[in-house]
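Continuing from the previous page...

OK, I double-checked the sequence for DUF2341 domain-containing protein against my notes and this is the correct one:
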Amino acid sequence: MKRGLMAVLMLALAVPVPALAWWSQDWQYRRKVTLDASAVAGLKETLHRVPVLVRLHGGTVDFTQFKPDGSDIRFVAADDKTPLNFHVERFDPAAEIALIWVDVPELVAGKPREIWMYYGGNGTAANNASASFDGEQALVLHFGEANGIPADLTANRNKVSVAGVAPVVDGVVAGGLALKPGSQIHIDPSQSLSIQPGGQMTWSAWLKSDLEAGAADTVIYTKFGSGDEASPDRLTLGTRGGLPYIRVGAAEAAARTPLTPGTWAHLAITADDKQVILYVNGSEMARLTGGLPALGGAEVIGGYGETPGFAGTVDEVGRANTARSASFLAVQAQSQGPLSRFSTVAATAEQRGTESVGYARILVGALTPDAWLIIALLALMAGVSWVVMASKAQLISRTLAANRKFLKALRQAVIAPDGAKALAELPLGKDVPASTLGRIFTAAQEELGLRLGEARRLGNGGLLVPEAVAMVRAMLDATRVEEEQRLSRRMVLLTIAISGGPFLGLLGTVIGVMITFAGVAAAGEVNITAIAPGIAAALVATVAGLAVAIPALFGYNYLNSRLDEVADSHDVFAEELEKRIADSYRPGGSLTSPAR
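Thanks. Re-ran it with the corrected sequence; updated structure tokens here:
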């Protein structure tokens, strides 16, 4: 059915889109991914090796074209030659959502960058989380683990433990962890996380606070010196009255704008030998002069000891052994959020071995299973309606031809000297079995024979009284109604197609639009290229409904006009036959005029 529909759509909508070089012939499909650096406020320099989040959802891509586990996904640079490292945080074809981190070699301020996503191949999984980050990245926590225990995705494999936390599905990217004041995420000390005096570091995370502004001190993040809580040396990120602050020893600096409860915010700390800076949503909010002391202890997200911790949800925690630039943090803050327009996946999939991809392929490729179900029902309805129209047209044509043949035979019989006998005895109707007039005549003839026999028994000499003629007319009318009902049988299927087809199509469109917007909301990507294919594909169901109804409407009206023609001939024939019988079998009657 998909092939048939695609063929029809190709004839109507095939507008070519050029295809370019192909990275590998082992992959069937590719889509262009555009990274719009001009959309990032604060990106003022060229960045190298930036992990970028690419969101896929059912409104953008057809998940049936991927392998069930997504292992056929590959990313290639704009030159269509250089494979890019990446890892998949989530691939859920049932929910039609995929979240993929790609190691982009370079982002230039103010300039869009394009990369290719290939899929539909038979290769094994190329997931490589540790290679997706530069060598300075010491810790990455996505919080997408099924067991709820975070795992470091870098090559360092730092040990992480949790207490009092609860996994949530609505993190800023995929899953997250919900923390209460007594909750804790503990990262053990390691060489990869150790900071030398005056050393560089960056810590970042997405946070959604559950506390109202004005609440007491809470601790978000602490980097301890050797000895952990017993050490006086530590770096602390916390909130006081909803205002985030950083503290090193006795020195403290706070932002002037509080965090908004219930809203995701990107918080980051950078440090070098001259300063420690707090960023909120990619913008500098507080600064301390001077570097960090030696910090070789554990790292804790949440409270410790008697110190209450942050209450809310945390996602995408990262630690690097370099002071990331303000531009780097601006990209993180403005590209990872659910409303980001930084990365855009092309609405059109290019297919290997074709020189062009028509609009029809886009529409068919974006159809969801429920849309295919609706279209299948409409196809069945269309098939039934076309069979009814064809069979009825053939039946009516055959009936009209047979009626003409019967009337010709009747005309020849009744103009003979014994025409009255022909009315009562000759099997003219049975000689033309396809004629409705013949069957009406046969029924009237049988009733006439009964009435003539009764008249002879009563001594009327084979003449009919008006009551007997009325009985013959009643038989004429009854048979005429039966014949017209037989001819109209199954015409109701056409009215069902006319009235039900558009509504079924509208149902498919509404469901498709709902699924498209649900996928957009779940993936967090809002742009016209994300929703256009899904909406366009959803409208295919409406077009299919109209394609069922319009031919059925024309066919119904045409067939009704032909049925009216047959019915009119029945009325005229019944009227004339009654008068002819009454005239032929009354006292002194004679058969003087031929049937028409």
